[in-house]
Design a protein that fits this description.
Organism: Branchiostoma belcheri (Amphioxus)
Strand order of the largest sheet: 1-2-3-4
Largest sheet: 4 strands, antiparallel
Number of strands: 4
Distance between the termini: 42 Å
Protein name: 1-phosphatidylinositol 4,5-bisphosphate phosphodiesterase beta-1-like
Radius of gyration: 19 Å
InterPro entries: PLC-beta_PH (IPR037862)
Number of helices: 1
Helix content: under 10%
Order of helices and strands: HEEEE
Amino acid sequence: MAGAKPGVHALQLKPVEVPKELKEGNKFIKWEDDSTVGVAVTLRVDEEGQILYWTDQNGETECLDITVIRDTRTGKYARLPKVGQPHGK
């Protein structure tokens, strides 16, 4: 870039806004990679939008760093996983 000056192009990101419904918790179905059985959970997201927390029907809570999520589905695309097929097919 002919007129660009080094060091003046700082990227400014807006703070993440986590919807109230996710901070307070909402019902979702959690799928394991090796199972065709979904588990009903209450899912919550921390204030910064970085950690997912879910509690199953037995009251057990687990958490996950949001950066390791590789697949999410909603609506008509939220079907049973295809067991035995490579991902993406």
